[in-house]
What does this fold into?
Amino acid sequence: MQPAEIERKLSRILLKVTKPGRYVGGEFNSVVKNWDTTDFRVALAFPDIYDLAMSNLGIMLLYQQLNQQPDMLAERVFAPWTDMEDLMRAQSVPLYSLETKHALREFDLLGFSLPYEQLFTNVLNMLDLAGMPVQSKDRDNTYPLVIAGGHACYNPEPMADFIDAFVIGEGEEIIVEVARTVQAMRGASRHDQLLAIARIQGMYVPRFYDVAYHDDGTIQATTPNQPGIPARVLKRIVPILPKPFTKFLVPNIDTVHNRAPIEIMRGCTRGCRFCHAGMITRPVRERPVPEVMDAIAEIIANTGFEEISLLSLSSSDYVYVHELTQAVHDKYHESGLSLSLPSLRLESASAELLDRLGDTRRGGFTFAPEAATEKMRDIINKYVPDEQVLETARAVYSRGWRTIKFYFMIGHPEETLEDVQAIINLCKAVLREGQKLIGGKANVNVGVSTFIPKPHTPFQWVPQDTHQQVREKLALLKDQIRGHGLHLRWNKIEESEFEGMMSRADRRMGRVIERAWRMGCKFDAWNDNHFHDRWLKALELEGLTAHFYTHRERALDEVFPWDHIDAAVHKKFLLEDYQMSLRRETRVDCRDKCFACGILPKFKEERSQTEPMAWECPPVKPMADRKRTGGERLPNVVLA
It folds into this structure.
């Protein structure tokens, strides 16, 4: 269907849907190139609604990288909400790009961002809305080549039936390399195109790997079935972060995060054993202060956003955080610009930093202690003593903030009800500190999530808590975290089981995903749209169980579905760390001591055969001894 026909049909249906601004495009700063004179065309897809997708920094980075190529264009496509989807199907309107209203079938390359597993069914739904077969084997070279990347792709096996090729690692450079490869092989068979893509470091093509199973359902081996295909796919990293993206598209409607993000640091050196992102984003790379300040000025000039969010996995661990916040305060404190660091750590959030983050709204601060007993803090390798929590709380409340939000985690196999009671006691103690300082205005908001073992982490061997155990722990929390000033939010047990099931699934889960989607499952990240009974029925019909993927303990020598995906952290290191957790032994921050996780030697070994290293391992230096001069650029990579 031609764009003019799509526009004509849209004019009749948009007034019948909620938030039609989701579907029209035309945002300030959007890039619209001449379709007819641009040689190669990429559709960048985020499989959720506009309100969420427009806040995704990853999509914007790829959008910029591709549109900077003179002979390429990138346009956006997001999942329509159910009311719009119903009308599109009724009127035979194919899924289209926001910039030029071209149907997805017309693009050369279709790239999905998959940051979390609950988006899997939406991918199938978007392919179907585009008039494309959902299974990769049914799409030849007359269809766009479909790739996917993001944190959920570090175990790509559940989606292996549907995606032609996965980006393992960071996408800023590899997206252009993949596009150039497909462009050069236009007209070749899909098989030959994928063979060429599979030889790009960081690209995984599932059809070129065979999976063998033991009788008990565990993996025997995953092996290449084509010559020249690597046995293990090493993740792609960007050695030096590109300049921050500053020309943000200004949304047509309010979005979930109505602010402009700047990534100040990528990676983390803390080594929390439950943290998937902390393991897969190694090594740490940090931006210099002048680069961030320039980006803030450009964002204000280009967009008019009044809030800047400084992103990283642990923003207060950014070496230059004090210089940066002081520089922002000095330049913008009278302009009304609001600055947020959404991932502060209790042990590195100083009173000085809290002062510099102050604004007129005095909303609140968010911290993630995760556990409240010495035992559990040692097990997860995130030790923050109670007194430090209380000291930080006093610092926050005394500066006029009314609300502290804490994130805690329940459900680790070693956790008891006494450990859960300690969460309650700590939250009440924090509230008392707030009431001493600001009276009845003090609030403690508590978010509780269920522990989910993730691939490529030290806890990938452990089982999830059973439904009964989680219910007992939640009942205790609900009974005692209530009353004036205390507010509790928690994840539903079924949703946590679903995420755990998808996180560690093998290739057989693809049959379940497709069956569940055909039974009406989509938007699984939305509470009211997750139908767990349908997922359990789909598992049963495919001869699989949730228990196999979630609640069983893995043997130490088990071959995992993701073992051929190399996140550059040795499995031996992860196993050693897991065994340390059983002994309640901890590791210090990697900035203070290198534990030889494997990240840097592996890249040196793999890449030096064909190209010189873009970076080397700098001397490990404790954070307390690091120079904090805002104009000095750190080494490209800090050992993580």
About this structure: Residues 186 and 193 are 8 Å apart (CA to CA). The two ends are 50 Å apart (CA to CA). The longest helix spans residues 417-438. The chain has three domains: 3-233, 240-358+588-640, 362-508+544-567.
